[in-house]
Amino acid sequence: MEENRFKVTELRRASAQAEFMERVRTQTVLAEKLLAALLLVNGGAMVGLFTFIGNMQKRGISLRLDTAMLWWSFWGFVVGLVATLAAFAMAFLSQHHFSLSCQYEIMRYDREVLNGASKDNAAERAEVVAGGKFYAAGIILTFGSIIAFLLGCGLALAGVLPA
Q1: Which of 161, 160, 162 is nearest to 71 (CA)?
Q2: CA dihedral 100, 102, 108, 109 (to 10 degrees)
Q3: Which long-range contacts (CB under 8 A, 24 or more apart) does 42-47 make?
Q4: What is the pLDDT of residues 37-57, one digit of tens each?
């Protein structure tokens, strides 16, 4: 009977270790893709707007520039960039807490093997809750970045009209 409990605990531990490794891989992918995509659209929009204005003036196309609108559009893109960086940080922190939860689960299984039954998983639950909060904040910031980008685009279009 004791040997069977040990085998079940080892299987659970191995499963928790596999989940931990998957969380680390997920953290890396989130960091790379989220940062790249959102920074690209918001930063690229700022550069694109500068390039558009420069090219139109260089070709002698008269533009009616509404500088207030253009400044607000740039602020929209800046807010988008800041929200992107914050969303990236939230993604990292959420995965950090989820990974800690997995580590605590592994340690609990180790205690179970060494000391007998240990059903206390409060530390795991606390990390999952913390990770969930950072995850939700990251989702909100991501949508905020997208909204700021769209507002920046709208304001930029309104600020640069043919004369």
Answers
A1: 160
A2: -150
A3: 42/77, 42/78, 42/80, 42/81, 42/84, 42/145, 42/148, 42/149, 42/152, 43/77, 43/81, 45/77, 45/80, 45/149, 45/152, 45/153, 45/156, 46/74, 46/77, 46/78
A4: 888 999 898 888 888 877 877
